[in-house]
Write a structure and sequence with these properties.
With 463 residues, the protein is of the alpha/beta class. 41% of the residues lie in helices and 13% in strands. The protein contains 16 helices and 15 strands. Strand 9, helix 9 and strand 10 form a beta-alpha-beta unit. Helix 1 packs across helix 3.
């Protein structure tokens, strides 16, 4: 039966849980009816406004529920046609193991030698009886020696980091949250790329901030769009990821960075610079913070180059924010785990961090080359991270492709994770680090390629 001829079904939830958000209660009720076969594959669900009126919820709540249901793979949406219960995969026989989805939605590095390297360093700490001092209270900003060594490692001839203005944090996420609290109050506006880091969106929600979208071009933030958005919104803070921007993996040229720095001076902007992926470059691109240090809050992290659970990040602040930065670290975590600071120093001084970074670059390059074989029209990257930006054919929306991939056991980053407005990005982020090896990655990429080789309505066909 063609989708456009399918009539709306009269589905209503039997009951909605009183616990948790209302949109999740609606999604869970819908999923339960699908699982129990009370909804037939291909059923066309009531329009958002109609369902909202019948069950006493806002249209926004119903829309959010339908969006969440699509991310779970329960339904598929078709512009101008409606929302349909998806054709489910065949039931797994009793006693058989359910196939596990390949998670290419979460950006993680491939497994390497990090566990062996850290085990050796931890053994060294224990053998030398150097653990006990690390278990004491320490300064909120971190142990002085640790900050000195780490500041030197971040600094170079073009960019100098003062250890007195460097704060060790529990990962880059913690550092970004502190930076935001230093420069913005609830209700303020912050300029961000129209497609931005999902973790920063979470920080904005938690701090009751409004994100102002700025258009991107092939290098990332479009300077003209930044100036226009700044003047129109009155925002005075700009969050930037100039190197391997997430989710698009675009990198600003030196000329672009200088232009952004000039605009920050001209528009009186404070810049939060997220530089967690610059280690993929053998020669780090010049940070914007090197051009306007008095306006910049510079963030790096060891979680991306060592391991996700190695929650150690750094925040460098202008001198005027030193006292409040220490207060916010104190208030949010007292201090970052000293043992992680100690391990970071040992990694740096022994040269083992360089070994791990070289391994990360090799792994990322191998995986991106494989991605490029399946999708040769994607952007060519000389220094790729563990994720890729996959442009979609015009007939495929990002949400529709995400749902189709999920139906085939492949999770890709849903567009709602990164979008600041409701526009379809026309592409999705595919994270390449999670598959165990190149063979598993190849199989997953092959499935994604096969999905795009077919028109959407054939993928979402109904009986």
């Amino acid at each position: 039966m063609a989708l456009e001829k399918t009539k709306f079904c009269s589905w209503l939830p039997r009951e909605l849980s009183l616990e948790g958000p209302r949109y999740l209660a609606l999604v869970n009720a819908l999923e339960q009816d699908v699982v129990e076969n009370r909804l037939v594959d291909g059923s066309r669900l009531p329009p958002h406004r109609e369902l909202a009126a019948q069950i006493g919820l806002s249209v926004g709540t119903v829309s959010k529920a339908y969006q969440e249901a699509e991310q779970r793979g329960i339904v598929s949406s078709h512009v101008g046609q409606g929302t349909f219960v998806r054709r489910r995969a065949p039931t797994v026989p009793v006693g058989a193991a359910a196939p596990q989805a390949v998670n290419m939605a979460l950006n993680v590095p491939a497994h390497g030698r990090e566990a062996d390297v850290l085990s050796g360093l931890l053994s060294d700490v224990y053998r030398r009886q150097e653990l006990a001092p690390l278990l004491d209270y320490h300064p909120h900003s971190g142990i002085g020696h640790h900050r000195e060594v780490i500041a030197r490692s971040i600094s170079d001839d073009a960019f100098s980091v003062d250890p007195a203005l460097l704060y060790l944090c529990n990962g880059a996420q913690h550092a970004l949250d502190i930076a935001v609290r230093l420069v913005a109050q609830p209700g303020d506006k912050i300029l961000v790329d129209r497609l931005t880091y999902s973790g920063f969106k979470a920080i904005a929600v938690a701090n009751s901030l409004t994100l102002v979208p700025v258009d991107l071009d092939d290098e990332g933030t479009d300077p003209d769009a930044l100036e226009a958005a700044c003047r129109l919104s009155g925002a005075r803070v700009y969050y930037s990821m100039p190197t391997l921007q997430s989710p698009t993996a675009r990198t600003m040229s030196l000329q672009r960075r200088k232009r952004i720095a000039e605009l920050a001076e001209k528009l009186d902007l404070l810049v939060i610079e997220d530089d967690v992926y610059s280690f993929f470059y053998p020669e780090r691109p010049l940070p914007i913070a090197a051009l306007i240090p008095e306006r910049s809050f510079y963030v790096t992290s060891y979680s991306k180059c060592v391991a996700p659970g190695f929650r150690l990040g750094t925040l460098s602040v202008p001198p005027a924010f030193k006292v409040r930065a220490e207060l916010f670290v104190h208030a949010s975590s007292w201090f970052a785990a000293p043992i992680l600071g100690d391990l970071a120093v040992r990694l740096l001084e022994s040269g083992r961090l360089d070994e791990l970074i070289r391994e990360r670059r090799r792994q990322a390059t191998e995986r991106y080359r494989l991605f490029a074989k399946f999708f040769p029209y994607a952007e060519k990257l000389d220094n790729p991270p563990f994720y890729a930006w996959l442009p979609l054919p015009q007939e495929w929306s990002a949400s529709r492709f995400t749902s189709a991939a999920r139906g085939q056991g492949i999770l890709v980053t849903p567009p709602t994770a990164s979008t600041v407005d409701d526009d379809d990005p026309g592409a999705v982020r595919v994270c390449l680090g999670a598959p165990d090896d190149l063979s598993e990655l190849s199989d997953a990429l092959s499935i994604l390629s096969e999905i795009l080789a077919r028109p959407p309505l054939s993928v979402f066909s109904v009986a």
